[in-house]
Amino acid sequence: MRIAAVIAAVAALLTACGQEQGIAPQRMADAVFAVIEADRASYTQKVVNRLQNEDKVIKADEHWQDSQALPLPAQMLRMGAERVAEQDAGFNYALLSLWAINKQNKPRTDLEKQGLQYVMDNPGKNFYGRETLGDTEYFTAVYPDVAVSPACVGCHNEHIDSPRTDFKLGDTMGGVVIRIPL
Ligand code: HEC
Question: What pLDDT score was predicted for residue 22?
């Protein structure tokens, strides 16, 4: 009897899912961000921090190819984003900043600028908006990227290409932008 009830409930759920018009863009963006964030944190803590700072066997360096070093976390993120952009994945993403070290990481659209400013001004909050680029309307989400360790602040403030030199621990330094065509 109870099994029959469970089967009926699952069948009803499957029917409901089948009628669903697809996942809402904000839910999709939040889910994609969860994966990006988990990968970024795992790589930073379990690879870079462990091997560079704890075990001291290999460094992470911007010029990792020439110096037999690990890529920086931001470079790992960009490599992943570039591979996704090569596919027809139904979304794209990037780690951007209003004070980017790499000019490729500067915002390009008004909404990106607005979103990056918003996450700077409203700590802990995400930004969601819509923008039309060419003939396509996009759902665009911006998630804050925070200086969680002194290494973030130190490296950026001292980097020769950094347009900003007064980042502090806990500052929002930029944001992950996820764009989904509607
Ligand atoms: C050893 C130096 C170094 C450390 C440590 C570092 N970064 Fe970066 N970061 C860079 C470089 C170099 C880039 C540009 C990478 C590229 O080519 O896309 C970058 C890119 C970024 C970007 C994209 C915008 C830009 O400046 O190009 C953000 C946002 C960012 N880092 C935030 C952080 C945060 C937050 C941390 C700490 C969790 C951190 N960084 C740690 C060097 C560093």
Answer: 81
